[in-house]
Write a structure and sequence with these properties.
Order of helices and strands: HHHHEEEHEHEHEHHEHEHH
Shape: globular
Protein name: Alpha/beta hydrolase fold-3 domain-containing protein
Strand content: 5-15%
CATH superfamily of the largest domain: Alpha/Beta hydrolase fold, catalytic domain
Number of helices: 12
InterPro entries: AB_hydrolase_3, AB_hydrolase_fold, GDXG_lipolytic_enzyme
Pfam family, one: Abhydrolase_3
CATH class of the largest domain: Alpha Beta
Keywords: Hydrolase
GO molecular function: hydrolase activity
Strand order of the largest sheet: 1-2-4-3-5-6-7-8
Distance between the termini: 37 Å
Largest sheet: 8 strands, mixed
């Protein structure tokens, strides 16, 4: 089922929205040298971030989905551009896994893309995953299986958790894989879904099939890239970095409302940053290693650091990396914008995974 199409009015408003975006970018370029607050050091990057932030600020969910296309469409586009053979697998419920590499690879990375649960897996995501798989495959037999979960508001919580659980069950049961051959990871909302899935294994969700009995040994690792594990914290980095990151507090609030059913109260599956330490105390029993990555000047960095410290306090092999001067999922965004990066932390993620293959 395709996302809801924008109304005629929403389509007509796309044109003035483009004007607002262009105006915001030009204004940022002109004023960037005089901005004393937090900003991207590279003026072009700073202006492009402003353009994305403005697009996400002035658009409705329907407009965003209309402009950005579909997960499957972008997957086919990027695999074609990179001369990678596409492989799309439909699971029992109809949700799809998008493979990079062989389904029979010895190791697999189950990846959940970001986008506030409402945006499709974009060009930056796919290019990051293609680069990651190609880099790892030089010395290891490894594939990536990216879940094309149903976007909100078409599907809402805990629907995406059900789909993530189904994907993991497929790898464990249908493919007869051991947990030690599987990495689980994601960026932003995908990081949220990664932590929610681990929480579901530790504390089975009442509305999601219990698969905890299938996890008889720890997973190889968990990779959390700019995880969105608190909907929209007030104050701190949410204020200081609001005009320098690619997303704004207003966009985050709108997306979280689209993901949640009505006025559904939050819980530990949705906002792991607010969960007590005891909720994750058995995490070392289900995953061998954990890496939490964040950008120093991203909107969510305070909650990321708080959660990273929580995980480090209970998991002896957990580590947290904060990239200086970086915004939200910086190495994914730079790929989307085709920007060069002198300090590409995607290579750090690749090295971290490679050391555990």
């Amino acid at each position: 089922m395709a996302p809801k199409a924008p109304t005629i009015v929403e389509r007509l408003l796309l044109l003035p929205n483009v004007g607002r975006i262009i105006f915001a970018v030009i204004l940022r370029l002109l004023t960037q040298p005089f901005i004393t607050g937090v900003k991207q050091k590279n003026a072009i990057k700073d202006a492009l971030y402003t353009g994305i932030r403005t697009f996400l600020l002035v658009s409705s969910v329907a407009q965003e989905q209309y402009v950005l296309g579909t997960t499957q469409g972008v997957y086919k586009q990027l695999t074609g551009r990179n001369r990678v053979k596409p492989d799309i697998q439909t699971l029992k419920s109809g949700v799809k896994l998008y493979w990079l590499g062989s389904r029979s690879a010895k190791k697999v990375i189950l990846f959940f893309h970001g986008g506030g649960y409402v945006l499709p897996c974009g060009t930056g995501h796919w290019q990051f995953m293609i680069d990651l798989q190609k880099g790892l495959a030089k010395d290891h037999d490894v594939a990536i299986a990216a879940l094309g979960y149903t976007l909100a508001p078409e599907m809402q919580y805990p629907g995406q958790l059900k789909q993530a659980s189904e994907a993991l069950e497929h790898l464990l049961v249908d493919q007869k894989r051991s947990p030690s051959s599987i990495f689980i990871g994601g960026d932003s909302a995908g990081g949220n879904l990664t932590v929610a899935l681990l929480s579901h294994i530790l504390h089975p969700h009442s509305q999601v099939k219990d698969i905890s009995q299938l996890v008889k040994e720890p997973f190889a690792g968990a990779v959390l890239i700019s995880p969105w594990i608190q909907w929209m914290p007030a104050g701190g980095s949410a204020d200081t970095n609001a005009n320098s990151d690619i997303v704004s507090p207003a966009a985050g609030t709108r997306w979280s409302k689209a993901y949640r059913v009505g006025n559904t109260q939050s819980d530990n599956y949705q906002e792991a940053a607010l969960a007590p330490t005891t909720w994750f105390e058995k995490l070392p029993t289900i995953v061998k290693d954990v890496i939490v990555w964040g950008g120093e000047v991203e909107l969510l960095i305070d909650s990321i650091v708080r959660f990273g410290n929580l995980v480090k306090s209970i998991h002896p092999k957990a580590e947290m990396v904060i990239q200086p001067g970086a915004g939200h999922e910086d190495f994914i965004t730079t790929r989307m914008l085709h920007l060069p990066s002198k300090d590409d932390h995607a290579k750090l993620i690749q090295s971290w995974i490679a050391a555990r293959l």
